[in-house]
Amino acid sequence: MSVEQAPVQRADFDQVMVPNYSPAAFIPVRGEGSRVWDQTGRELIDFAGGIAVNALGHCHPALVKALTEQANTLWHVSNVFTNEPALRLAHKLVDATFAERAFFCNSGAEANEAAFKLARRVAHDRFGPEKHEIIATVNSFHGRTLFTVSVGGQPKYSDGFGPKITGISHVPYNDLEALKAQISDKTCAVVIEPIQGESGVVPADKDYLEGARKLCDEHNALLIFDEVQTGVGRTGSLYAYQHYGVTPDILTSAKSLGGGFPIGAMLTTSELAKHLAVGTHGTTYGGNPLACAVACAVLDVVNTPQTLAGIKAKHERFKTRLEKIGQEAGLFTQVRGVGLLIGCVLSDAWKGKAKDILNAAEKEGVMVLQAGPDVVRFAPSLVVEDADIDEGLARFERAVGKLTQG
């Protein structure tokens, strides 16, 4: 027998939630593929993908099946034991990447926290406590824990929470000379997003990543790639490091890995992994059977030649149409990004107005994102239908038309 539930409204958010978010006025209640329906039954096309999370859209049959089967089998046992889905997932990731070892957690921030702790522990064990400095990039984003937000290069997110973790410095992104000037024998790690996501969808230059790899080798520092947003097919390669042909020592993954179910992973080599011996790091939920079963299903769908080739083709479909819309409206100066992580850079006349465009798009029935105030970001399902791309961009074009004439 079903219990009658009280109606829920957007106004409830302001009554019962901590006000650190400012969500949209409508409440999505159901999704299927790349379509979402709100409380009034209005249908929207989803090009936001839960911020690059819903890699296979909403309620993908393979994920629903994996989750349902696992939900009827085993939910949680803790890391005092192990479980089959976690070991299956670890095998899949090890087989598909440079890595030999996996550590599972629940989010991108936790994956980065583990990566930074591992880098410091390796340097501590091999060279002593002096070698602990981490170099990150200006405008980077690595999570919201105190450690990860301190490594992230955006003071607006890290200021006002007391003393910051020390031994962290920031250099401009894509600037090899700046990195060369900063790195030293005290550096334990250099942390880079192969494509800066939050700060504007800025892809790294290949020679920048190659140069960073070489500098790390020269200074006995570890190269960490934060692939929380770029990982699991987003770029048309399973991981962006494969797209660039530059291999890190440690890679972090989350977002798309669970297709909407919370999971994060840190991937590394056996040689480095041994420094996190028993008792040095842990997590209650990490490697949870439900999350790992879903992630296995995500990888089975995404890591195929057909899906990865499809992502590259869909990129072209988006880019061609977005460039045309941007030129005709005088809205974008550039459409950049790789695969299905796309950023449209606003022209001078529209600088600072990404939120307005996002709101106008929603009114026309299409969900998009921003990446900072000057970039409109698209991170749709990796298997979004061409018909949904065309219809969603038609709606987006209508929204832009109304804004520019308004």
Verbal overview:
The chain has 406 residues and is of the alpha/beta class. It has two domains: 10-59 and 305-405, Alpha-Beta Complex (Aspartate Aminotransferase, domain 1); 74-302, Type I PLP-dependent aspartate aminotransferase-like (Major domain) (Aspartate Aminotransferase, domain 2, 3-Layer(aba) Sandwich). The protein is built from 15 helices and 17 strands. The strands form four sheets. Strands 4-12-11-10-7-5-6 form a seven-stranded mixed sheet, sandwiched between helices. It has a four-stranded mixed sheet with strand order 1-2-3-15. Helix 10 links the parallel strand 10 (222-226) and strand 11 (250-253). Helix 4 runs parallel beside helix 12. The longest helix is centred in the last third of the chain and has 25 residues, at 305-329. The protein is globular and about 60 Å long. The N and C termini lie far apart (51 Å). The mean pLDDT is 97.
In CATH terms, the superfamily of the largest domain is: Type I PLP-dependent aspartate aminotransferase-like (Major domain)
Characterize the main sheet: 7 strands, mixed
Oligomeric composition of the shown chains? single chain
CATH architectural arrangement of the largest domain: 3-Layer(aba) Sandwich
CATH fold-level label of the largest domain: Aspartate Aminotransferase, domain 2
Amount of beta strand: 15-25%
Poorly predicted runs of 5 or more residues: none
Shape: globular
Number of domains: 2
Q: What portion of residues is helical?
A: 40-55%
Tell me the total number of β-strands: 17
- Name of the level-1 CATH class of the largest domain: Alpha Beta
Mean pLDDT: 97
Class computed from helices, strands and strand pairing = alpha/beta
Distance between the termini: 51 Å
Tell me the Rg in angstroms: 21 Å
Number of helices: 15
Task: Give the strand line-up of the largest sheet.
Answer: 4-12-11-10-7-5-6
